[in-house]
Design brief:
The complex is a heterodimer. Chain A has eleven helices and nine strands. By secondary structure, chain A is an alpha+beta fold. In chain A, a hairpin with a 3-residue loop joins β8 (about 220-225) and β9 (about 230-240). The longest helix of chain A is centred in the N-terminal third of the chain and has 31 residues, at about 20-50. Chain A starts with a helix and ends with a helix. In chain B, β2, α4 and β3 (about 85) form a beta-alpha-beta unit. Chain B is built from 14 helices and twelve strands. Chain B has helices at about 5, 15-25, 45-55, 75-80, 100-110, 125-135, 150-160, 205-210, 215-230, 235-245, 265-275, 280-290, 295-305, 320-330; strands spanning about 35-40, 60-65, 85, 115-120, 140-145, 165-170, 180-190, 195-205, 250, 280, 310, 315. By secondary structure, chain B is of the alpha/beta class. The chains are: A alpha+beta, B alpha/beta. The interface of A and B includes residues 239 and 255 of A.
Chain lengths: ~280, ~325
Amino acid sequence: MADLLPNVSDPLAALTFQEIGFSTLLHVAYIIIVAYITVFVSSFLLRKLSERLPTYRHTVTMLIPLVKIFVYFLAFYYIIITFIQPNLTQLVAFFGLFGAALGLGLKDLFADVIGGIVIIFEKPYQIGDKITIGECYGEVTDIGIRSTKLVTPGDSVVSVPNYLVFSQSVSSANAGNVAMMVIIDLFIDSRCDAGLAMKILKEAIISSKHIIVTEKFPYTILLDDFPFYHRIRAKAYVGDLRNEFEFKSEVTRRAWIEFRKHGIRPPRMRDAIPVKETLSSLPP
Amino acid sequence: MGNEEENGLPLYQVELEAIEQGIRDFEEGRRENIALISEPFAGRKKLINEIRKSHAEKITSIRFNSTITSNDFLSSLREGKEVVIVENCHFLARRKIGGFDQIDAFLNYMSSSHQLFITSWNTFSWSYLSAVMSVNAFFPRVVRLYPLGAEALKSLILSSYPYAIRFSENGERAADRITVSMACLHLRLPFSSTVHCIPWPEIRLPQLLKGRRKVKAEDAFFDRLASISGGNPGVARKLFEQALTFPEVPLSALKEPKYTISLGINDRFLLSLILTMELVSKDDLAEIAGPDIDVDKSLYLLSAAGLVTVEEATYGIAHEALKSVVQYLELSRVVW
């Protein structure tokens, strides 16, 4: 170990630092601006392209974080060689020490960056996925160097640090696919015709403008019996996960209009309350 | 599709033979109901007419021209002969709650009947109904009308003109282009009644690559026509008529129709309904779409974009737009 230290420190000691003048700073600013514009333009173009290829939307958008990491690392490299002009040994030694410094002083930031790289290559989720991470649920709109941005159903933007991918379980509702399973539960009075209700819900599902049905994306209608009500559950895939809530709402509304026409009622609350409680809660 | 349009559509010999074989098998005691499936304008009607003509004495025929809302048609089936042709079965289903009762009744009747059913369907409607209610399970013998290659389109279209048509390059050199169109190799697999199409590309190389043999303007024209029309004979014929300046067809007159389609979900849905039903009235569309969709507005947008045509309040996909519409709706996952 003692033998190694001089080998590492010697090349660093031999590093030649450039004089930091106005032109150097201008050069650095120029690199940062070019990197930013490159990332911005390529992200914009890739997003536009992904909209034109709905089936491959997620594959195309996953190139965005890759481009970001590549461009920013390249920019970082050029900034380094603007200040110092190292040979290969010096460069390796520099990055070794720089990494150690990051690990000690900026370990959270470093963990986020590593987390970002893991997310890109391991793909626990992708841009466009609907995920639950920690207590947040929403659509992934961006995977950055440091954090992942989610848009919640309430349209709030949540930044989730990338390192959470190591410590929290991530649930992705569609796992990179544009289609996504949606579960719709309707509750009806147990005295109503459950068979008819299932038929209506099935037709509401298959006639929806949002649905996709193929061998890969089948649909199911299930009936579950509870003491005071029936639960009719539909599991079906929405063709574009962005329409998850519209699909749910459309099917529910159309099904209930038809339920009412056929005398199918929602369960009554008083049926769910035990008789004793009902009596005791009545005023004397 | 009117009778005028039907003239000049191809008589698909392989597919015709597959249906004839189905009838022969039925006569020998093996009943396999037949589904004839194709895109709009592909010539289902002509094929069915040919079957009807050659077996007139034992065939009862029913043709649906608009959406069916009652089960009255079943009585015609009950009184029918041993072979029943039911054309445009996609009109039996309406994509709404309660809109599947007629097709359910038809499939139930068909399952318990001893008659042979030869049915015709729009291909997109067939895919939808197969996915949502397994219609395909009722038809062991599926006959599809596949796209035609350049050669087939050429013989089909030219045979319908009694006079010679001249093809001119008119400033555009046919020999300079590489053209690729898709042709179909028919194949029946063992133990299957269905004729499959193995697509293979017909490639024409420029004169430079092919040596001295000159690519005729006529061949170049039909190569391009096959590519633009997607091999659909009805679309190809329409484009040919548009390019024809009697008695000459300049190569430059054949232009690929360009559509930039960008529609909202409601307009897209309505367009898919028109594609799957081929010809549909505004009232039927309004009934299927329900109160959520402003049908007038959507139809106006679709007509203005040149995607649909309207005749006597009945809407259909414009011939020239068919390929673009199908590509768009498939990409948007509205048709599967």
